[in-house]
Automatic annotation (TrEMBL):
InterPro entries: MetI-like (IPR000515), MetI-like_sf (IPR035906). Belongs to the binding-protein-dependent transport system permease family. Pfam families: BPD_transp_1. This is Carbohydrate ABC transporter permease. One of its GO terms (cellular component) is plasma membrane. It comes from Candidatus Microbacterium phytovorans.
Amino acid sequence: MIKHSRAYAIAGHVALILVTLSMIAPLLLVFMSSISSESALVQDGYTFWPAQFSLDAYSFIAQNSATVFRAYGVTIIVTVVGTAVGLFLTSTLAYALSLPELPGRRTLSFLVFFTLLFNGGLVPAYIMWSSLGVRNTLLAYILPALLVNAFNVILMRSYYQVNIPPEVYEAAKLDGAGYARIYFQLVLPLGKPILVTIGLFIALGYWNDWTNGLYYVSDPNLFSIQTFLNRMIQDIQAISNNSTGTVVTSNVPTVSVRMAISFVALLPLLIIYPLLQRYFARGIMVGAVKG
């Protein structure tokens, strides 16, 4: 029995090490490629150890530092506002669905689940948001992504049902507390792990989103970091494909710049994620106990 447990533990550790390496390796490859010279990348391809080190890609980005910082500012505003509003909507809907006495609870739960399977599609969404006048505004980033994600609602509702006993609600009601007071003074403090977890999900969605900027934003002053990086990659590709721009092309490290751009966009998330990891593990595991 002891040998069996030890073998199981060793196999588990080996599996976790392999999974960890599979996640770290792409990040390491991106960073190493970003500090490789353009000629080495073209000749040898992507490698974990550059044949020739070069910071030309980061120098190229530094030349556009004002635009990069402005794009970072837009991204931070959109992420903070969108995450706060999205988390409030998600938590209030999950709280309501967790209450057994809610009228039409099964129907509402089905409607939330239905959105996991079907959606209106890109064209109706584009027509709707364009008609609402969100183009070239910060709302173009916030509103389309603000629609509540059904997976997050179900995860949070399950957490509330498992971790907040009905006796707590009953005791609060006997003391004269209404639903709003119970939500703000009981549900939110007790649901801190799942709030941080879902908040991280929503924040990652806003930070990594580049499609809404592609569809609805053409003003360079309103580019988010992902939209700016996407446009920069397209511009580099356009320069590379321009037969009359051979002088400019020779000065632009097109391949390494792509890697440097990707690493710059990932850097804030790599810093923030370890700080929230303990809440993330508790929230996602407990919330997934039952549906």
